[in-house]
């Protein structure tokens, strides 16, 4: 049996979140996700305390297509570590941390406006 990383090849609003996962494009995903211009990917992170530069590599790979990165840090807002904020600033991306619920709502609005937005969303129960 072949096990592949989760990936949806396109942009889609998030229809629902909670229960440890997300629903989008008539699909569901258990765990955290990265919503990028190239698609929606499973993201191996469970808590804001696990955030590191390495965990955002897929985002940095698409720097030219992203102006704003919404970072859903779980049930509560957690500030981004200084090194992560500095790296995004240097890449020309505004990284905006907020609770996952707020990030999902903001992502959906910005997608409907066809903005250059991405989101890193930590799953919540």
Description:
Strand 5 (32-36) and strand 6 form a beta hairpin. The strands form two sheets. A six-stranded mixed beta sheet has the order 1-6-5-9-7-8. The protein has three helices and nine strands; from the N terminus they run E-E-E-E-E-E-H-E-H-E-H-E. The protein has one domain (7-121): 3-Layer(aba) Sandwich (Hypothetical Protein Mth938, Chain: A). The model has no long low-confidence stretch (mean pLDDT 93). It is of the alpha+beta class. It is globular, with a radius of gyration of 13 Å. Helices cover 22% and strands 32% of the residues. InterPro entries: MTH938-like_sf, NDUFAF3/AAMDC. It holds the Pfam family DUF498.
Key phrases:
single chain, 125 residues, Hypothetical Protein Mth938, Chain: A, three-stranded antiparallel sheet, 9 strands, MTH938-like_sf, NDUFAF3/AAMDC
Provide a brief overview of the structure.
With 125 residues, the protein is α+β, with helices and mostly antiparallel strands. Helices cover 22% and strands 32% of the residues.
């Amino acid at each position: 049996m072949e096990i592949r990383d989760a990936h949806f090849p396109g942009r889609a609003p998030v229809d629902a979140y909670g229960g440890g996962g997300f629903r989008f494009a008539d699909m569901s995903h258990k765990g955290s996700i990265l919503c990028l211009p190239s698609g929606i990917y499973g993201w191996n992170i469970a808590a804001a305390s696990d955030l590191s530069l390495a965990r955002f590599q897929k985002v940095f790979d698409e720097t030219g297509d992203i102006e704003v990165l919404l970072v859903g840090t779980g049930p509560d807002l957690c500030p981004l570590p200084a090194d992560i904020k500095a790296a995004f600033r240097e890449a020309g991306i505004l990284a905006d941390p907020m609770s996952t619920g707020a990030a999902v709502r903001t992502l959906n609005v910005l997608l409907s406006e066809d903005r250059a937005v991405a989101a890193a969303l930590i799953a919540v129960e």
